[in-house]
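During the reporting period the student researcher (J.K.) took over the structure-prediction task from the postdoctoral fellow and processed the backlog of single-chain submissions. One of the processed entries is reproduced below for the supervisory committee.
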Amino acid sequence: MNNGNSRRGGSDRKKSGPSKPLNKARKPGASSKPKSFDKPKSFEKADAEAPKAGSSAKPRSPKAAPAKKGPASFAKKDGYPRAKPAVDKKPTDKKPTVKRQSNPDELRLNKYIANSGACSRRDADIYIASGNVKVNGKVVTELGHIVKLSDKVDFDGVTITPEKKEYLLLNKPKNFTTSGEGDKDMRNVLELIRGASRGNLQPVGRMDKNTTGLLIFTNDTEVVRKYAQPNQKSFKIYHVSLDKNLKFEDLEKMSAGVFLDGHRLFIDEVTYIEGESKTEIGIKLRTPNVKVVRAIFESFKYDVLRVDRVSFAGLTKKNLPRGNYRFLTEQEIINLKNI
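J.K. obtained the following structure tokens:
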């Protein structure tokens, strides 16, 4: 039996020094594994440098990422994915394009038709493909056909010119006439619109040197022919200055119509101009002949001092000073053709 002196921690136990506490605090950063499981630093360095078993991959270089093939391959650099092209395209040598030297006397057939004002280029291609266009008497259905300005082109049975249809409105001053005949002091109205267009613009109707006001110029032969006819639907308004006051009874007779050269002429409206003397008269007619206006008042024994056309087929002199001109808007052109 053991006595009391044999108890654990008794006085007979050999004391070699103070005992270490059981719950000793670990140093921060110390490993929780036993020392027997820790590898020496020399081994860790060797493992880091040696490739893994069964892997043929080379150690990754910090400068170049490993190349991988495939349509959706990515290479990581600094922790961010970077897309790579699936196929490396080699630069191809482009052949220099040789531009065709354009001849100013030649152009495509669809542009020829569009410049004539018949229709747009796209619509012209439709007409060409359907066989409705002839060049020098022969049907052409080839798109992109080149024609010369001297060629004769028939579009849907009508001969056309490559000029784009243009319409110009002039506020004509005195001492200019639409004809080149007469006194040497008279000048042609074409001088007033010189440089406005390259087209062959012609005046619509006639005006003598003493008549002022609105005058239309165009290269549209249909419009010129339309407004040259004696019977028209469009109205013209004139401001007439007389040598003496117009009697009211004469004004009423004019409103009922007058006979000139055995023909009766109907006057749509004749009136005194508000705020002016009775020598200033406004008259509304459909005839394009300016000489008729003078003849009406002269038949009633009045001398006409001045005739000014202030309105032509709905067009006015608003914002158009004397001697100046302007091109018509698209809507004005439509109205001019539809009247």
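The committee noted the following: The mean pLDDT is 78.
J.K. will present the remaining backlog at the next meeting.
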